[in-house]
Amino acid sequence: MDETERIATSPSSKGRETSEFLMRIVRTLSHSADFEQREKEKARIDKAYKQSDKKLGELVTAHYEDLTKVTQDFSRMSKCINDSRERITKIREDLSSCKTLLHCKRDELRRLWIEGVEHKAMVALLDQVELIKEVPVKLDNFIISKHYLHATDLLVNAVAKLEKPLAGIDALRDLKAELIARNEQLHETLIEELNKQIYAAVPDQSVSLKRSSSYRRGSNLTKQLSDPECKQTKPTELLKPPEMMDLNKEIKEDLNGNPEENPAHFIAVLVEALFVLRKIPDSAERNKKMKDPLGIKSKIEPELSAIVARTSQQVVDSYAQQGESLSSQNQPRFLLELLENVFHQFRNVARMHKIVLRNLQRIIPTPEETVDEVSGVPVRNELLYDMNDVWSKIQAVLELVLREYLDVQTSSRQRAPTSFDEPSTDINSYFSKKKPTKSKKISLFRFDASIHAMSTNSYVDDNMTFDTGNLFHVNLLSEVGLGKHQMEMCKPSVNNITAIFMPLEAFIKEVEDAVACQDGTSSLQSFVTEFIQNIFLGQVHATVSSSIAAATKGLQIIISGFDALRHVVDHKTQKDLGVTRPLLTSTVTVDRNIRKLQELMQSLPTYGDQFLNMICNILKEYRDTCNSAYRGIVQIESDEKRVISATWAKDEDISRFLRSLPSWRSLQMSERQDLSKKLCSEEEIRTLNSKEALILISNLSSEAIIPQQEIITDVTQMRTIANVHESLEWFAGRLRQFCELLSARSPNSMNSIELSTREYPPVSDKSLESLKMLVKDFQDLAEICLLLLHLEVRVHCFYFLLPVAKQSNYAGPIDDLDPDSNVLKLNKDLSAMEEMLVQSLQPQKFKYIFESLGFLVSSILMSSIQYLKKINENGIKKMCRNLFAIQQNLTNITMARETDLDHARQYYELLYMNPDDVLSLIVEKGPDYSYTEYVSLFQLYQKSHPHIKPANLDTLLHKLEEVMNKTQNGSST
How confident is the model at residue 756, as a pLDDT? Predict the structure, then answer.
């Protein structure tokens, strides 16, 4: 489409675009140079106009009917307008003539109008009298249907008419007095209804008593809790938050609906009705004219107390078993359920009060001022209470409830120790020996079971049961009818705080968020904090300390070696704990107390650091007690000298070497269940075992004999050490898990360990590090006990085997083939230790104690050949008997043949051969022993055969050196 057609098809911009188009045509024709160009332009324009005319004709043809209808309508409208103009002109002329006629009779019309007004006033006055007479009946109907705003408007308007327009009618005096009295009655009714809406209506029906399946009772419990008269309303919609209320919205009342269907609107209606009655000041404070002297603010505390009493009664009725009270069950969960329901209802009460205050603020934005009649000074009328008053009363009532159920008065008589939660606290007094108490005198007879005593005790118990103390004020008790069921919820106890602390703190947080406290802490929070710090923590500390004191006293008895079996847990406890070996009763007692403190950390997370410090203090004391017990076993009398095994276990070099051996590392891997990886080959293990034996031989063989006081001769003490090891290792493992959970909750931790349902609170890094150090101390002491047992068994071998070579005769003329007496003593000692330790140690640890013991025995006896002065064939047989007896005993203990003892026996059997035959055997089969062992063998052979001269011995040793060098070079090539 060209430009001309576009202009034709755009009627909205026709005028402007047509002018522009004509101007362009003029400019084009004026600037054309020749005639032909102008003719072309003219032809193009003619063509465009023809097309436009054609298009216009088509459009007219297409819309002919519409165009015809529009034309007809326009003609009809034009005719109507002309007719209207004519009629208006006529009316104007008629009005002008009427005005002229009325002007002629003006005085008569004025007289008639005045008479009409007077008659209307009389009729209206009679109508008002008739309406006033119907007011009492209508008022009763409105009050019955609870349309209080209509009732108030009706009453106020009626009284106003009786006082002004109808004041002179004597027949209405009695009605006026009646309505004025009804005014006061309506005021009281409004206050009662407002209090009922505040304290009885529960808008959220989703919250009910959370009882377990075994304690389920009636389904109407929540209904009874929310309404003492069991007349529970069913609101169709939830209360709107007070902040969302439209203060500018006019309060209206629907006569066709249920007024209580929307509690928020109903409260607004009640407040509006009080305002219409002009009773707002009296409603917010005391009204001495009312029969009930309590206003809204003064009724807060008794109504809250009534809620607590009503809820307590319903919980008792729902959960108490027949013939048994809740207090005898001693379950704090009933108290928790009571508080949760009370918290829910208190929140609703505060919510209702907030709605009331918002409506009061809507009606009276700022307090008014009046002038004192006596002094004439303006006085500011504090008409409105605020939410601080409501929350203050709520906290006061809850504090009274908590004081009774937490047994504050009884517990406050026991003073808590100061700074008991400090890491430096000294609680040695709980572990020190107590003075023996004097035996009590035993009465010959008593009258406890007599009828008089039983009746007296029953009377005292009843009085104590129903004595509620200071749970509520006395006057409040008398008003709301409380005092019988408050103490039947559960027994008052300090420990009840653990069950209610978390929901209580959550509610306190709501209170502090709602109330602007000056110091940031509410009064209820101050009470809870003071109770926990001054009473609860002190009692927990004293209870735990006394329990641990008794347990550690038992550990001291174990140290003395008296009746040790009585101080390990029984089999049932072992099974419950999931352990296979006995644990010390003291350790289990300490662990149970630690577990209780850990549960308290979860129940009272705000005081997590205090409980952790308490745990650290207890662990420090128990660690010191365990160290003292360990020293009491390994220390020789009062001297600082200890048994040999304890000295070596404490030695850093020896301890580090023993911990590097494959046997120790395999023991640690077995604890982690990682046994698939083999640490060393058999040859490497034999080399390391020989190094261990060499270290022990070099330190012990040089002595003439080991003193008896430097070994542990009482095998029961070794069992005690084994029990200490198992107990402390188990204890350290449980503490280590606790550390991991705390580390995951530490603020600086990046771990994402999945915790239990109830997490531990974050704790300070200092306390956590202190706990980790204590865990390491317990683990170290447990490992030292195991190393001590490992070394003690080997020291016993030296103690019995060194005299075998140094003191016994192996060249006597008597044919003595029995094993040496010291060997028999060693076997008996090993069997006794095996019998004790197999019951106290786990199999892998028992294996660690007796593993490679055959190699050590063979090394001791082979190295002891240098101490033999002479030996004959009978002596050789006797030595072989010694080795066989030890081998048989060790095989019964380890359940494996000790081939190292065969090696030692074959070594002594070489003495049957002369040195030349031995050299030939070395050349033929290679050396089975070291050069030093062969030298000791040749030297003993020379001492046992005097005909061999020392020069010949030197020659044999020279040949031996050559043979050994040759065989070693041959093996290396």
Answer: 43
192's CB contacts (< 8 A; 6+ apart) are 292
Distances 871 to 249, 801, 805, 877, 930 between C-alpha atoms, Å: 123, 17, 11, 10, 21
Question: What per-residue confidence (pLDDT) applies to 726?
Answer: 92
Residue 144: count other Cβ atoms within 10 Å of its Cβ.
9
Quick one: tokens of 268? 């607004």
Reduce the DSSP state of residue 370 to 3 states and report it: strand
CB count within 10 Å of CB 159 equals 18
Question: What is the DSSP code (8-state) at residue 313?
Answer: H
Q: Which residues of 8-47 are buried (b: 16+ CB within 10 A; e: fewer)?
A: beeeeeeeebeeebeeeeeeeeeeeeeeeeeeeeeeeeee
Name beta bridge partners: 568: 584
Distance CA 480, CA 488 (A): 18
Residue 760 has what pLDDT?
Answer: 83
Taking the C-alpha atoms of residue 133 and residue 158, their distance in angstroms, rounded to an integer, is 10
CA atoms within 13 A on the CB side of 468: 22
Q: CB neighbours of 877 closer than 8 A, spacing ≥ 6?
A: 817
In angstroms, what CA-CA distances link 475 with 208, 478, 483, 533, 541? 30, 5, 11, 32, 39
Residue 683 structure tokens? 């040859």
Cα 660 → chain centroid: 43
Contact 911, 870 (CB under 8 A): no
Q: Determine the Cα–Cα distance for residues 195 and 528; give it in Å rounded to an integer.
A: 30
Tokens standing for 384? 């409105």
Length of the chain: 973
262 Ramachandran zone, left/alpha/beta (phi>0; psi -120 to 50): beta
Report CA 282 to chain centroid distance, whole Å.
48
Torsion of CA 270, 272, 273, 275, to 10 degrees: 130
User: Helix count (H) and strand count (E) of the chain?
Assistant: 37, 2
Question: How far, in Å, CA of 114 to CA of 938, rounded?
Answer: 164
* pLDDT at position 972: 54
Per-residue pLDDT, 271: 87
Q: How far is CA 62 from CA 41, 71, 713, 870, in A?
A: 32, 16, 131, 149
3-state SS, one letter per residue, for 688-740:
HHHHHHHHHHHHHCCCCCCCHHHCCCCHHHHHHHHHHHHHHHHHHHHHHHHHH
Block mean pLDDT (10 aa), the chain, length 973: 46 63 75 76 85 88 88 92 93 89 81 88 83 87 90 88 79 84 89 88 44 35 38 40 62 85 88 85 50 66 91 80 55 86 92 88 64 50 72 92 84 50 41 42 48 46 39 40 52 87 91 74 89 89 83 59 59 90 90 91 89 92 89 72 83 85 77 50 68 79 74 89 92 92 64 50 89 94 93 91 85 75 92 92 90 88 88 89 92 87 91 90 88 90 83 86 80 53
Place of tokens 């500390």: 541
Helix, strand or coil for residue 546? Answer: helix
Count CB-CB contacts under 10 A for residue 97.
9
Please report the pLDDT score of residue 365 as a whole number. Answer: 61
Which distant-in-sequence residues (6+ apart) come within 8 Å of 617 by Cβ? 420, 422, 423, 425, 427
- Decide: 959 and 921 in contact? Cβ < 8 Å: no
338 in helix, strand or coil? helix
Q: In sequence order, what are the beta bridge partners of 642? A: 635
Q: Which pLDDT does position 613 carry in this prediction?
A: 92
pLDDT of residue 344: 92
Query: Residue 689 in contact with residue 855, Cβ under 8 Å?
Result: yes
- The DSSP code sequence of 439-489 is PPPPPS---TTSHHHHHHHHHHHHHHHH--TTSS-HHHHHHHT-SSSGGGS
Tell me which residue of 606, 491, 604, 621 sits closest to 544, measured CA to CA. 621
